[in-house]
Amino acid sequence: MTARVVIHGCRSNLAERDALAALAPEGATVINSCAVTAEAVRDARAAARTAARTGAVYVTGCAATLEPERFADVATIIPNALKLNGEAWGRAGQQAPVTRQSRAFVAVQDGCDHDCTFCVTRLARGASRSIPLETAVARVAALAEQGVAEAVLTGIDTTSYGQDLPGSPLLGQLVQAILARTAIQRLRLSSLDAAEADDALLEATRNAFGPRGALARQDSGYRQRPGQQQVRQRPDQRIGAIRRAPRPLVAAAGDERADLVADLVARDAFAERDDPAGDLQ
To answer: Strand 129-130 relative to strand 150-154: parallel, antiparallel, unpaired?
Structure first.
């Protein structure tokens, strides 16, 4: 019996799901919280109160890191900096697994170095940090050997990958290494910033986009019409609007780099190997 993990917020939290389930005490509930809005913090608080009726509760993630007092009366608080540390859970030395669903999520970066005034992410997650390139390649290779067809490289600001590592390897170099040295059939990237897309990344994805790409941007779905109240669009309406939107203003019209960057931010970067048998559909 493992712990029950409730995920709020981003894919980075989702990537930690199975690790938290393995690290937390058996039978406990772990809330991996989000603090991107006040409503997200309230939702985490409500989930913790509900779970506390039936057993031990641990709250981690951004809301627990920024506002621990909101949860202290109903749960044990594990801040972001310690949530994947086995010692914080009394399991020193335990290897945390990668989250697997229909695809496997591999967190290659965490934190953010941008100082956006509207965002609490840097306060909650700290400065940008990357896992070594060889470690990331080894994790994806192991997943492929286990029969996983698709891996998703996640992060808070994934395109800043490597800036804190010796030699400053680029995200594009990581992608190229994974495609060259592992047998993974599909590789997806999330949380991309067009301004940080490096040439190696663009080269790696130049001819490797698959036909199915999920959106890599956050959108509340609310639109203000003149003289009317806010109107919430359906997801399919937002997808259509984003796909029809002009490409980002990152280069002059006709610039091939701008076209590639537009693809990166309009959908997840999605590299797929040849699959003549169609087994991956």
So the answer is: unpaired
Distance CA 251, CA 264 (A): 14
Bridge partners, 222 (sequence order): 232
Q: Which DSSP symbol is given to 69?
A: G
Residue with tokens 């991309």: 192
pLDDT digits (tens, 9 = 90+) for 34-81: 998 899 999 999 999 999 999 999 999 999 999 999 999 999 999 998
Task: Give the three-state DSSP class for 223.
Answer: strand
User: C-alpha 261: how far from its chain's center?
Assistant: 19
**Whole-angstrom Cα Rg for the chain:** 20
CA distance 160 to 170: 8
pLDDT recorded at residue 265: 46
pLDDT digits (tens, 9 = 90+) for 116-126: 888 888 889 99
The Cα 257–Cα 270 span in angstroms is 17
Q: Which of 218, 8, 6 is nearest to 124 (CA)?
A: 8
Cα–Cα distance for residue pair 223/169, rounded to 1 Å: 39
Spans of the chain below 50 pLDDT:
209-255, 262, 265-281
What is the DSSP-derived secondary structure letter of residue 246?
Answer: P
State the Cα–Cα distance between residues 64 and 15, nearest whole angstrom. Answer: 18
b/e burial code for range 191-222 (CB count within 10 A of at least 16 → b)? bbbbebbbebbbebbeeebbeebebbeeeeee
